[in-house]
Task: inverse folding
């Protein structure tokens, strides 16, 4: 089993999950060429993919979809409302457009979407279940909801949003309306909130957590890791033992092989 975060951040997101002999790409928010190169670097081709799962319709999660699908005819899964908001959906081959219901079965691998609070039409995160393993991708979280907490609880691996530092956001270059959107209930999770979620949920030992979707203007990888670590320490959680933290980046791959 492997996970490769090909890109994570405000400029584009793509995560490769390999479980149960299946290869699933979560989001394609970078160019087709970058995805091809990122996959090749870990020994995978686009043709090897069993599918692409879309979390929501914002461009940093779907910008590579049209070229990928037209070039490689890979199936793409999204909520019906998400498809309706994707302007180029009608130009994609119909057989490649798949709608997501309550779950998707890829052989022995089961994928279950869960609702998230974000300013999109029907945004979701994904839980991956294979044998006794549970992996989760949960980003673009405006707030910690019960569904998010339940989805992340007992996960062996989690790709979790740690988008911004509140002080950097407050004093940063963004206009007021954008700052309000980011820190609102349909925006993005702060470093502190990511740490608080991890501290409060029931966990497996050695939970592997990728701090993801970091803002390039309102956060720093080392700051996100330090803040989350501090919150975990304050809740008597041993970082490196109870929870193992990993940084992610917008322009290079971070991998974990289990």
Result:
């Amino acid at each position: 089993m492997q996970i490769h975060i090909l890109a994570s951040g405000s400029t584009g997101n793509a995560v490769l999950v390999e479980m149960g002999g299946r290869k699933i790409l979560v989001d394609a928010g970078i160019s087709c060429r970058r995805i091809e190169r990122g996959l090749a670097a870990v020994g995978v081709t686009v043709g090897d993919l069993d599918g692409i799962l879309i979390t929501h319709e914002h461009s940093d999660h779907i910008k590579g979809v049209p070229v990928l699908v037209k070039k490689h005819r890979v199936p793409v899964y999204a909520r019906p409302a998400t498809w309706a908001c994707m302007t180029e959906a009608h130009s994609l081959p119909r057989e490649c457009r798949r709608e997501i219901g309550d779950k998707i079965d890829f052989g022995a691998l089961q994928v279950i979407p869960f609702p998230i609070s974000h300013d999109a039409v029907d945004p979701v995160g994904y839980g991956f279940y294979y044998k006794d393993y549970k992996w989760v991708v949960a980003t673009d979280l405006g707030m910690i909801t019960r569904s998010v907490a339940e989805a992340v609880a007992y996960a062996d691996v989690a790709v979790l949003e740690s988008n911004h530092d509140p002080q950097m956001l407050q004093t940063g270059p963004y206009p007021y309306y954008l700052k309000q959107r980011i820190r609102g209930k349909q925006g993005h999770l702060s470093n502190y909130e990511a740490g608080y979620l991890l501290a409060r949920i029931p966990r497996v030992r050695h939970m592997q957590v990728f701090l993801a979707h970091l803002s390039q203007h309102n956060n720093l990888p080392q700051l996100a890791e330090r803040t989350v670590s501090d919150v975990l320490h304050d809740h008597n959680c041993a970082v490196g033992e109870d929870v193992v933290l990993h940084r992610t980046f917008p322009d290079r791959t971070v991998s974990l092989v289990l």
Observations:
- The mean pLDDT is 97.
- Residues 221-234 form the longest helix (14 residues).
